[in-house]
Amino acid sequence: MMRLRRSILLLTLLAGFLPVRAQVLWSYRDSVPDGYNFLLYLPAGADTCSTPLPTVLFLHGKSLCGDDLNDVLRYGTVDAIRRGLPLDAVVIAPQTSVVGWEAEKLDHVVEFVNRKFPCDTNRFYVIGMSMGGWGTLKMVHHYPHKVAAALAMCGGYAEPSISGLSEVPLWIIHGFRDTVTAVSYSATLVKQLYDSGKGTRLIYDQPACGHSELARVFYLPELYQWLFEHNLQDPGRPVNLQYSITEETMNAAYGRLNPDAVPELVPRRAPFVPDRLPEPEPPKEITSWDELPSLLDWDWTQIRRSAVPPVPVRWW
Predict the structure, then answer these.
(1) How far apart are CA 214 and CA 172, in angstroms?
(2) Domains of the chain: which residue ranges?
(3) Residues 268-280: pLDDT tens digits?
(4) What's the pTM value of the predicted model, to 2 decimals?
(5) What is the pLDDT of residues 254-270, one digit of tens each?
(6) 50: Cβ–Cβ under 8 A, 6 or more apart, which residues?
(7) Average pLDDT value for residue range 64-73
(8) Within a 10 A sphere around the Cβ of 164, how many other Cβ atoms?
(9) Which CATH number applies to 19-269?
């Protein structure tokens, strides 16, 4: 019996080190100091792929606030995946129990995920609607050097300055029939950006729809295709203007998905996953004899002898 218990304990400990063979949805509670509880979607083979994956941070609206992570599945990116949206990306879906998002807490969650999974930090995206739209703009304001592109829908902006917003490819959508959050909240910000000459990376759409109808955008492949067109390493970081959302695509949003093609995807308690080892530093390039250390300080693991310029060798 004792041997059986030890075997079960060993298997439990090793579970966190097992590769993600199929797509998974893990729930994290009280895992990030000064952060949020969150759902984490990982596509199949996420922890063994050789190429880092893009990361999407989805911020919900006021109606999903609480302490039950299952509520985050009511709409948004994770629900779209469960309904058949193909998405080869890591998705972080946090939940807040109070009204409003704090950018620093969100950043703590994102950095926690970056340490444990192969996330491409040059392709990090933030999307949200309603209260999540406010949170998206707040993230862009505080971390423009981290966000490759962002989508903010039917939200608003209350930060003391607009710094950072002009540095990120930003798509703002707000229906002019919105009776929950007045369209003026977005329109005022857009005008402020354009009047100050900072609207060169901005797209602004004002469709003929209400508040909740915009949730359909999260189910459109075009949204994620647009996001993934942007990278922090893009020279000048221009906004891609080749994508648009029409009334026709909005109306067909759910019908284009195929939930039967997706295996059951339910939140499960996240296993222990150790932090990934830091990337090794590249070997030092030695271009002259003056840069050579003394023989006592020679680090053979860091210096490539082939990089030393050839010189005559005397043997004695």
Answers:
(1) 11
(2) 19-269
(3) 888 888 887 665 5
(4) 0.81
(5) 988 888 877 678 888 88
(6) none
(7) 96
(8) 20
(9) 3.40.50.1820
